[in-house]
Amino acid sequence: MRHFPLGRPARIAVMASGRGSNLEALLKAFPPDNPLGRIVLVISDRREALALQKALEAGVEAAYVPWSRRQGAAGRERFERLTEQLLMDRRIDLILLAGFMRLLSPEFVQAWEGRILNIHPSLLPQFPGLFAQRQALEAGVSETGCTVHFVDAGMDTGPIVLQRRVPVLPGDTVETLAERILEQEHLAYPEAVRKVLSGEV
Ligand code: GRF
Question: What are the start-end ranges of the H helices in the chain?
């Protein structure tokens, strides 16, 4: 089913667990006066996530929704129930996962099919999962990058919207490589969201 273009500014939610540098790039690209869409809600499963602070500094609603590991599936169900409620209340059109470090259930993801994106620091399908930059170094590839993709029930699978490439340089560490990829992430994510919202993909 085709969801975009909407013919009005999209209401966007970002879900993030950590420092929120992609969130910052998205907040800049989709401020309240962007006719394509605006970030109106940031959700985190971690109370101390910098992403929540960054949202508040930008004047955007920031919600901490707990996800208890100890409770297993019940912890995830509770998180997803509360999150769905928030997304409905705020009439969200598009979800952007930006460093959101949990795997959402197939039911949640299916309900948002075509309306939920993720960014990953590799050229998928290479190096899915955690520590993608380390995986790239260990594999000895000469090039890696980042991928923005629609989310499906798998881990870093789902149709690709766009990729940006970076070289792996001699002497690179996980940190230097991650930094080089991150610069491209900050360009790739807003560009991918523009493509999706304008109905190009
Ligand atoms: C990024 O490298 C992103 O690709 C990955 O998690 C990291 C999040 O960084 N999914 P930040 O919180 O956006 O700074």
Answer: 21-29, 50-57, 73-89, 106-111, 132-139, 174-197
